[in-house]
Design a protein that fits this description.
- The complex is a heterodimer of chains A (about 750) and B (about 150).
- With about 750 residues, chain A is of the alpha+beta class.
- Chain A folds into 3 domains: about 200 residues, Aldehyde oxidase/xanthine dehydrogenase, molybdopterin binding domain (Aldehyde Oxidoreductase, domain 4), CATH 3.30.365; about 160 residues, Aldehyde oxidase/xanthine dehydrogenase, molybdopterin binding domain (Aldehyde Oxidoreductase, domain 4, 2-Layer Sandwich), CATH 3.30.365.10; about 300 residues, Aldehyde Oxidoreductase, domain 4 (2-Layer Sandwich).
- Chain A has a 7-stranded mixed beta sheet, sandwiched between helices. A 5-stranded mixed beta sheet of chain A has the order 12-20-19-18-13. A 4-stranded mixed beta sheet of chain A has the order 21-22-23-24.
- In chain A, a hairpin with a 5-residue loop joins strand 18 and strand 19.
- Chain A starts with a helix and ends in a 5-residue tail after the last helix.
- Chain B is α+β, with helices and mostly antiparallel strands.
- Chain B folds into 2 domains: about 80 residues, Beta-grasp domain (Ubiquitin-like (UB roll), Roll), CATH 3.10.20.30; about 60 residues, DNA polymerase, domain 1.
- Chain B has a 5-stranded mixed beta sheet.
- In chain B, helix 4 crosses helix 7.
- The longest helix of chain B has 14 residues.
- Chain B starts with a strand and ends in a 5-residue tail after the last helix.
- The chains are: A alpha+beta (about 750), B alpha+beta (about 150).
Chain lengths: ~750, ~150
């Protein structure tokens, strides 16, 4: 170890002595915070290397263990799940674990907290680091106690001879010192049958503070000498700023206008003055570059322009001649553009100096953003520190990162720390959007419901290769260096049915662009793809006159999938019969539907069954019951998994029933909760989640797979109830009523 | 600068504001009571809910002038981590929050509900909280917690 690294190690430990949260130090004392920032700003390199145990774990002198996690907790429970994993593997009580998350100076870069990979990837790296650490500690104890490693056992952070006699604690062996150990990918893992922590619903440490007001949210965070800012985004998409009338805010004490090319903001000493200034400021903008007509989005997707077509899957063979009774169907499905619609508008604080920058952000990807911020601030990467603080829930990428860029650019401009708080209109109008998706499916099945031929074509925006980050708004508006491109996540997966088929073809028509800056939105692409796949399979089953559960079980080969569908059907007391049911002309028609996904064909298994009541006179769908069976392999924290699944179901029901971003030819018009309504308590169904734990399988994600199965289950239940197939999201009462009266759905 | 007398969490406070239209939300947050959250500024989402003379009100659209002379209770005033109120404890026991940004407003609105209707039906809970939005989907747990706090099994 060189001196440079050593001094950092000491600093990092000093920061965390006693388990105190670093951010609190910043909140309490700016000079102390600055010193700490300087101490760690130079700490790039070895200590945060993913190949080193020291990057993930520190044994503290007081007997606690600090876990450094690049993956962050934004309400999904990593703050307990990862300590459970680490404590289990190390052999310490979980309350001895301190958890540090998402600070680029302190945590290793484990990639963005996205794609439901927090446990599956991030947690597993930490598990392996902890297993390596345990082996290293046992080796040290073996030397210290002069007992062979095989004869030692760990109990609550103390290593003792299994045969009895004095032991030695982790702190005595290594407290305050480095492991200096390479992470061993083959370090033996604890046998799951001996787990005492993993698999238990231990309480999340933030629950009490969130229920009593003590939790420090990004939106609550402040530093001394900080100005409050509001941004004024272009009046039309792509518009440039023609003029600003600074005199329009002259009567607001302390309010100051900041303009950098097309980036416009106001700053003030207090938040209310900043809000009033943003409202009062008069500015003139050009007309902008225009948007497509929102109600013709599906058509515009088909028209391109395109980067090209790609055959994603082409396997098997269709029969040369169709057997008697075979039926071929064709249908088009559409999923609209949607917003993250975070409950709290985005917020960030930045302190940018000539030679360094500190940014407090609720970003799900602090490490990746460090590069982006260094680029547009023209600072060396190691001089930029991004510190994660939990904000209002985010489900991919809402405005958090844009607000952070706003704050950084404004802080540099005014020479003081700046807090940027977006308005509701900012958040709904300018958060990056889940893109619209259009899908055509053609399928043939025989009289027994076997799929003979399947072709699904999807129209989706293509991710720009090598794009470091979705381009942030204010660096573009202010003309700073900002790599251009688009990334809406892995949109194309699960376009093929998870059932046996003669031939399967999946083709992507890659769009060059998507309006209003696409981004990954929870379970990117899969809610639409699985909706099309599962609803279309239901169409095939109905054409063949086969019960929907029966159809799926005939085509499923994976025993985990089969068990899941069977269990869901059993919970629902599913009656074997073809859809639709017999009361389809009742004033309130009731029905049930099922949907299944093996997420990405390699991850979590989900089956969702739904019972609905459709009111013919109004077109209103009342979802009465949702049953979800869920297999995400080894479960770390059952209650945490359950909360994620419940949330996935409620949020996606909202997306399926109600949500569509609306815009005129220049800007978003669905920019508050009345024009972009989300599901409320009165629409809440009864939700039953059955977890299938597989302790000997690798843990998989629970944060988004269930989202994918919601649309299909609902469309299928409505078809079962009414005989009418809904193929366009959202299923608003107007649209359902029209479909019931024979209009195309 | 004009000043306003407001009773906040049981203490009489005098708050200065040059603007009688300043929303109560910012008055509270400026004195360190940050549980009530800015969600929309339009009275649509309920994240900023506080009790005003026992009723759940939106502090983002209530002016400081309108709050003068009233008794305001925020989440912090209902209980603490060491001594949570019965409703806070029920939310804790049910592990209600995910991000938790809406939770303060949910607990405040639930407190108002149970003070006027100590044994609400699930439908009454849904109706009372319908104006409190949650994006994470914590709704099933909110309902369970409110029913549990009212002494009814969820």
């Amino acid at each position: 170890m060189n001196a440079h690294t050593k001094s950092f190690q000491l600093s990092r430990r000093a920061l965390l002595r006693g388990g105190g949260a670093l951010t609190v130090a910043f909140a309490l004392s700016a000079p102390a915070g600055k010193a700490l920032a300087q101490a760690v700003a130079s700490a790039a390199g070895r200590a945060l290397d993913l190949k080193e145990v020291d990057a993930f774990l520190a044994i503290n002198a007081d007997g606690t263990v600090t876990v450094f996690s690049g993956k962050v907790d934004f309400g999904q429970g990593l703050r307990i799940a990862i300590p459970q994993i680490a404590a289990e593997e190390l052999g310490i009580p979980v309350d001895k674990v301190r958890f540090v998350e998402g600070d680029t100076a302190l945590t290793p870069d484990q990639g963005r907290t996205s794609g439901s990979t927090g446990i599956m990837r991030g947690g597993m790296q930490i598990r392996q680091a902890a297993a390596t650490a345990r082996k290293g500690l046992i080796d040290l104890a073996s030397k210290r106690l002069n007992v062979p490693a095989e004869g030692l056992a760990i109990v609550d952070g103390t290593i003792r001879p299994a045969a009895g006699g004095p032991g030695v604690t982790f702190a005595e062996l290594l407290g305050g010192k480095n492991f200096d150990l390479k992470l061993d990918p083959k370090a033996p893992l604890k046998n799951p049958s001996n787990y005492t922590l993993v698999g238990k619903s231990l309480k999340r440490p933030d629950i009490v503070a969130k229920c009593t007001g003590g939790h420090v949210y990004m939106q609550n965070f402040a530093v001394p000498n900080m100005l409050h800012a509001r941004v004024i985004r272009p009046a039309a998409s792509g518009a440039t700023l023609r003029s600003v009338d600074e005199s329009s805010v002259a009567d607001l004490p302390g309010a100051k206008v900041v303009r950098i090319k097309d980036f416009l903001a106001v700053v003030a000493d207090d938040e209310w003055t900043a809000i009033k200034a943003a409202r009062a400021l008069k500015s003139q903008w050009s007309e902008g570059t225009g948007l497509p007509a929102w109600n013709e989005m599906a058509k515009s997707l088909r028209e391109g322009p395109f980067n090209g077509d790609e055959v994603l899957i082409n396997k098997g063979e269709a029969p040369a001649a169709l057997p008697d009774g075979a039926k071929t169907l064709k249908a088009t499905y559409y999923w609209p553009m949607q917003s993250h619609a975070s409950l709290g508008p985005s917020c960030a604080v930045a302190d940018v100096r000539d030679d360094q920058a500190t940014v407090w952000t609720a970003s799900q990807g602090t490490h990746g953003n460090r590069n982006t911020f260094a680029r547009f601030l023209k600072l060396p990467r190691e001089k930029v520190r991004m510190i994660y603080l939990e904000g209002s829930g985010c489900y991919g990428m809402n405005g958090h990162e844009d607000a952070a860029a706003d704050a950084a650019i404004l802080s540099r401009a005014v020479g003081r720390p700046v807090r940027v708080q977006w308005s509701r209109e900012d958040e709904h109008g300018f958060d990056p959007k889940g893109p619209a998706q259009l899908l055509d499916v053609t399928g043939t099945c025989d009289a027994n419901g076997n799929i003979l031929d399947w072709k699904l074509e999807m129209w989706i925006p293509q991710t720009t290769k090598g794009l470091p980050n979705i381009p942030l708004l204010s660096p573009n508006e202010s003309g700073l260096d900002n790599v251009q491109g688009l990334n809406a996540g892995l949109l194309s997966q699960n376009g093929d049915p998870p059932y046996s088929a003669g031939r399967i073809q999946v083709i992507a028509h890659w769009l060059k662009d998507a309006p209003l800056r696409p981004a990954p939105l929870r379970s990117p692409g899969k809610p639409a793809n699985c909706f099309a796949v599962e609803a279309f399979c239901d169409e095939l089953a109905a054409a063949a006159g086969i019960d929907p559960v029966e159809f799926r079980l005939r085509g499923l080969k994976d025993p985990r999938g089969i068990e899941l569908v069977k269990r869901a059907a059993a919970i629902m007391k599913w009656q074997n019969r073809a859809s639709p049911g017999s009361d389809r002309n009742a004033a309130v028609a009731r029905g049930r539907g099922i949907s299944y996904i093996h997420y990405k064909h390699t991850e979590t298994y989900v089956a969702i069954g739904m019972e609905v009541a459709v009111e013919r006179a109004t077109g209103n769908i009342k979802v009465e019951r949702v049953v979800c069976t869920h297999d995400c392999g080894q479960i770390i924290n059952p209650d945490g998994a359950r909360a994620q699944i419940e949330g996935s179901i409620v949020q996606t029901l909202s997306r399926v029933l109600m949500e569509e971003v609306k815009f005129d030819r220049s800007r978003v018009t669905s920019n508050d909760w009345s024009s972009y309504p989300i599901l409320t308590f009165s629409q809440l169904p009864k939700i039953e989640v059955e977890l299938i734990d597989r302790p000997d399988e690798p843990p998989l994600g629970a944060g988004e797979a269930a989202c994918a199965a919601v649309g299909g289950a609902l469309s299928n239940a409505v078809f079962d109830a009414t005989g009418v197939r809904l193929r366009q999201i959202p299923f608003t009462p107007e649209r359902v009523k029209a479909a019931l009266s024979g209009a195309p759905s | 600068m004009p000043s306003y007398k407001i009773r906040i969490n049981g203490s009489d406070r005098v708050v200065d504001s040059s603007d009688p239209d300043q929303p109560l939300l910012y008055v509270l947050r400026n004195i360190g009571l940050t549980a009530a959250k800015f969600g929309c500024g339009l009275g649509q989402c309920g994240a900023c809910s506080v009790l005003v003379d026992g009723r759940s009100e939106r502090s983002c659209v209530m002016t400081i002038a309108a709050a003068e002379g009233r008794a305001i209770t925020t989440l912090e005033g209902l209980g603490s981590a060491a001594k949570p109120s019965a409703i806070q404890l029920a939310f804790i026991n049910e592990n209600v929050p995910q991000c938790g940004y809406c939770t303060s407003g949910m607990i405040v609105s639930a407190t108002a509900l149970l003070s006027s209707n100590p044994k609400p039906t699930p439908a009454q809970v849904n109706a009372a909280l319908d104006g409190n939005l949650c994006r994470c989907g914590s709704h099933p747990r909110v309902v369970r917690a409110v029913l549990a706090a009212s002494g009814q099994a969820g």
